[in-house]
TrEMBL record:
Keywords: ATP-binding, Nucleotide-binding, Transport. This is ABC-2 type transport system ATP-binding protein. CDD domains: ABC_DR_subfamily_A (cd03230). It comes from Sulfitobacter brevis. Gene3D superfamilies: P-loop containing nucleotide triphosphate hydrolases.
Amino acid sequence: MPTIVDIKNLRKAYDGGFEALKGVTLEIREGEILALLGPNGAGKTTLISTVCGITMPTDGTVTVGGHDTVTDYRAARAMIGLVPQEINLEPFEKVINTVRFSRGLFGRKPDDAALEKVLRQLSLWDKKDSQIRALSGGMKRRVLIAKALAHDPRVLFLDEPTAGVDVELRKDMWEIVAGLKADGVTIILTTHYIEEAEAIADRIGVIAKGELLLVEDKAKLMARMGKKQLEVQLTQPIEAIPAALQSDALTLSKDGSALIYSYDTRGERTGITKLLADVAAAGLVLADLVTRQSSLEDIFVDLVHDDNKSDTKLGGEGVA
């Protein structure tokens, strides 16, 4: 897929010397969903704000659809829709007028048919004449997305779009995002809900301390860095792992009822056969075997933890 957003060596420093972004380089592909994960203060919102022209970069360049966000701001910004974290809407305005106003801000001609399509897509059409103040929090977030889509952008930034909403509405939002992708919209999502990224993203980016640690296809990342665990459940709990079974890859559950063995599925041998033989030789009786694949959350925690210890960047596609 061609690149639609091209970020090169992007830096943002503030008075006093604090660097919110430290040379971020990233290519975002047309039509993909990219999820940016990172702890609080990692630089996610600063990155979005800089790409959208809300914050001026200290150094580096950003182009959207070939338009530089500084020297050709209007053309670049017209290609972008932004859904901010904060719900900041005029409470006494009607939904339809709120969305019309956003379309006009970008110089787009009035087109009620286009606005109707957006509102129906977001299940807002029956609320079009309602005042914003009468809507639930979830519906207000849908209005924010409608505003962002009103001028037909090709790139949509969602900054913590499901923060504070319930699980059911969050899943509805995932379906909305999938529908936008089907229409060819490129979506960049920041989220604290790692299961959100795992459910809908094509690629995952991890950012910490203003640096992009990696960007990689979700499936490849999980295959490359994911591990499996085998839980050997015992018929009787034990107080400690027998000396014959001592291994860095083996731990005992808190209640002593299971041995937990971590292994890499990419290895020539997993060691499971030998483990089970050793368990039997130690006189332990198996009740059941359970396997578990590492989740994206496990991988994310490991990455950020390693970065905090070493302060070194990790390799990955799309990273300088």
